[in-house]
Amino acid sequence: MRVKSYKMRGLTLKNGKQAAIELNLEFEGKRAFIIWDSVSLGAYELKARVELNPKFLKKDTSRGCDFVYRGKLVLPRPENN
Asked: How many helices and strands, by DSSP H and E, does the chain display?
């Protein structure tokens, strides 16, 4: 399956305050994922992805990104892994 890549901007909490973040966004068919982290291993790239609800993505190129996410964005924390 072909993966399409874009840039996404969203809001998250950082130290108890809202903060804007910019992440890489990929689509696989109708499914949407942000790339939380990636590691190259020779010819391979391993990606840690978090799936998003695509109905909360809005196309918006006026903010220097391709999409804005209007849903709840829950990102993994290293201390919880």
From this structure: 0, 6
